[in-house]
UniProtKB/TrEMBL annotation:
Annotated family: Belongs to the acyl-CoA dehydrogenase family.
Species the sequence originates in: Mycolicibacterium agri
Entry keyword annotation includes Transport: no
Domain Acyl-CoA dehydrogenase/oxidase C-terminal: 232-358
Acyl-CoA dehydrogenase/oxidase N-terminal domain span: 6-117
Pfam family, one: Acyl-CoA_dh_1
Spans through the membrane: none
Cofactors required: FAD
Molecular function as annotated in GO: acyl-CoA dehydrogenase activity; flavin adenine dinucleotide binding
CDD domains, per database record: ACAD (cd00567)
Keywords, ordered alphabetically: FAD, Flavoprotein, Oxidoreductase
Domain Acyl-CoA oxidase/dehydrogenase middle: from-to ranges: 124-201
UniProt lineage: Bacteria, Bacillati, Actinomycetota, Actinomycetes, Mycobacteriales
Designated name of the protein: Acyl-CoA dehydrogenase
Amino acid sequence: MDFTFNDEQEAVAKVARQLFEHRATPEHLTELESGEIRYDAALWSELASADLLGIALPEAFGGTGGGFLELCVLLSEVGYSVAPVPVYSTLALGADTVARHGDSELQQRFLPGVVEGRILLTAALAEPGGSDPTAPRTTARADGDVWRLTGAKELVPAAQLASAVVVSARADDGDGLFLVETDGGGVDLTPTPTTNGEPFADVALNDAVGRRLAEHADAGIVRALYDRALVGLCATQIGVVDRALKLAASYTSQREQFGRPIGSFQAVQQRLADAFIDTEAIRWTAWHAAWLIAQERPAQRAAAIAKFWAAEAGARVTASAQQVHGGMGIDVTYPLFRYFLWAKQIELSLGSASQQLARLGNGYAEGPNP
């Protein structure tokens, strides 16, 4: 296991950071957030022009043939700049799933458009009142060559922007994933406010037409998507806490009290040292899980561990960053507040720290678990 990035991965990080630092400035984000939706279409087009939207998609559809690690590198940069682009929903949840499980017709219909920046996708896993995203209550019934889906999904990332949604549902022969186009009948989208201001929507399905993404029922297909979704969140959190810690280090080295920088005070140093350790725990558990997925090895346990650290430690890091800033830490004209809100959003998405601990505990109770 080697966490050293290769030249291609380093290039992805470098190009993405340059784009985000140029476009996702605090001033631009403030202007964008005063509008109706936190999405920068121009920046999305620039990502497409830089060949970043196809980094984890096959070359046959215009991608560069990279894999899950390259995608996580990009997600980390999204978190570092809290960039207003649906990389997580479109690439990690939607396009990656279609590429792995869709038939050639669906792949050809959607993936080139994703690479070119014309098509946005997402996936719907969470359900109202349901604590286990791997056990859908949404139903799917066969209707000739298509499937009819009925049920409710909540907090679907960028659903109001997406052309299609990957939906987890329960059919007579078992659980599966189904691709539902958002402009079809029986699909009702309701935008919902979120902690970090990112676009999310609740999705109600009433006999909506869907296409199954695997030829036969597969008990592990929903769980595999859930694990990849968790690790994508963790990769984003790497960037979030890394930037929050850097902001805190910069501020405490410049802000003076009693004639010296507050960063020289032992209490501040201890607080930031603990935050650094937490940041490294998030980083290495996330990259371990991402590496396992990239190697097509079982990652269920590693994903739960990574999400626990991203949730629990992510909250600690951003809280510490705010506290060493004093009142400046909660000033919405100062960029740190966005990192606190993003860390909180990631903390609670698809299962909190306590839910991940319960998941891990249940795995041990059942015996050996990958």
